[in-house]
Amino acid sequence: MLDQGEKTMSAKQSRLISKVLSPALGLWLRSQVQQVSDLLVKISGSDRQILSGYIPYVSISAHHAIYRGLHLTQIQLVAESIRINLAAVLRGQSLRLLEPVPVMSEMVLQELDLNASLQSSLLSNALTDLLSTTLLPANCPIDGPISWHQVSIDSGQLVLAATLKATGLEKPKPVVVRTGLQLASNHELQLEHPQIQMGELRRDLESLKLDLGPEVDLQTLHLSPGQIICHGRINVIP
Predict the structure, then answer these.
(1) Could you report the per-residue pLDDT of 172-217, keeping only the tens digit for each?
(2) Which of 18, 59, 105, 142 has its CA 20 to 30 A from that of 131?
(3) DSSP-assigned beta bridge partners for residue 63
(4) How far apart are CA 12 and CA 4, in angstroms?
């Protein structure tokens, strides 16, 4: 049984966790995004574990987050065995991870938010690189900007519309890319029978794989009319 002094210390520790660690984590998360709604953070663990800088379990949920121009309709994250610089946080410094953290995530992307994300350089540059290095023929190099206009999501399929300026074209041409999308492995996406249409010209391609890197471990990817839902794990590197 705790004596009065131990009870007082336990109460102080609990207040320290609720008043310092949770706000610090919430503040750090908000600093990583441009906008977020309904951000909920839950931290689980004993006082002794947390005060030593070890967090056994953290869950985070948010709606309508914007990260580097990417609009995320809904996201839920769960991380375990996290080590942070708590001593530095208590001195007023920013929270920092000390070791890589595997994060389980479930993300929903609705068509409206995905279209808003087309204005971000992160997504538009990735789509442009895919188009120029993989999908377009070698005799059709891009010599100007590509303007991405719209993305449509159907059951298992994506349709992307853009305007392209390329060598040999007198004026910018509308481009439509249609492709099935599924998981080839836990870290690879597969474009199923992609097709490019430029005006009256249409090019059918072989299916191809896109490697997302060793830190990604996707379990499910589901495309239904108007939204994409994916579930998996990402290793967050400090």
Answers:
(1) 788 899 999 999 999 999 999 999 887 777 888 889 898 989 999 9
(2) 105
(3) 37, 74
(4) 12
Q: Rounded distance, CA 116 to CA 121, Å? A: 12
3-state secondary structure of 61: strand
Name every residue whose Cβ is closer than 8 Å to that of residue 157 and which is 6 or more positions away in sequence: 178, 179, 180, 181, 223
CA distance 122 to 69: 7
Q: In Å, how far from its chain's centre is CA 46?
A: 30
Q: Report the distance separating Cα 112 and Cα 143, nearest Å.
A: 30
Instruction: Compute how many other C-beta atoms are within 10 angstroms of the C-beta atom of residue 112.
Output: 12
Partners of 151 in the β-ladder:
160
Q: Kindly state the tokens that stand for 151.
A: 């993305």
Delimit the domains of the chain by residue range. 4-99, 114-236
Among 81-95, 145-159, 198-212, 217-231, the range with the most confident prediction by mean pLDDT is: 217-231
